[in-house]
Design goal:
Blueprint (H helix, E strand, L loop, with lengths): L2 E5 L5 E5 L3 H29 L3 H11 L1 H4 L1 H8 L5 H5 L2 E5 L7 H9 L1 H7 L3 H10 L5 H6 L1 E5 L6 H5 L19 H17 L2 H15 L7 H17 L1
Antiparallel strand pairs: 1-2, 3-4
Helix pairs in contact: 1-2, 4-6, 11-12, 11-13, 12-13
Length: 237
Amino acid sequence: MEQFQIETAQNISISQNTAHLGDRMLAFLIDTFIIFTYYSVMILILVSLDMDLGDTWAIWMLFSLPGFLYYLLLETFNNGKTIGKAAMKIRVVKLDGSNPNFGNYFVRWIMRIVDISISSGGVAVLTFLIRGQGQRVGDIAAGTTVISEKKRVSLRDTLLQELPADYIPRFPQVTVFKDHEMQTIKNMYTDAKRSGDHNVIVNLSTKIKEVAQISTDLMAIEFVDIVIKDYNFYTQQ
């Protein structure tokens, strides 16, 4: 997933994650299914009415407009999201991070003829891969891109915790552990404290001392808490 920098009016740089190609393709499939279903229902209704051919075509042209304008209408009135985009947690924005106007959405929509219709999506995919910044031809012409609004939480994020500015670590040996091992320790410690299971904390303390070769007379609950904080201290440096 690529990132691009947005410079706000206050000269603050913000990193945005461009939507992954897979997410955009899935959103496209969802939207295509919705449009296809809409047209299918409209055809069944018109057939069931048993109207004259001339009247049928006139009504069909009228009722086909929502499907024809699907992308333009939804992106304009739904904050850059179609139903498929909303499902995949992605949306259209301008390259400066602001919301596009109708003109931007219209250019994206009309350029679907080149990106999607004529080339069966080949131009859009090729441009996306070569251009970067999550842009197809329509995005380049409109000055837009598609960003992901998914929250990405890494293992490191779940380990981090605030430490006092004057915190002094006591056990440098804790760096022997890996992130996933310390995450397991933290989870077990938190769960044991919540349930009041002191035996788990004692066993955890014993195992930590054995692996890290630490000798201390601290109580188990205090020792494990310090180990977690020390690990955060050393890995945040």
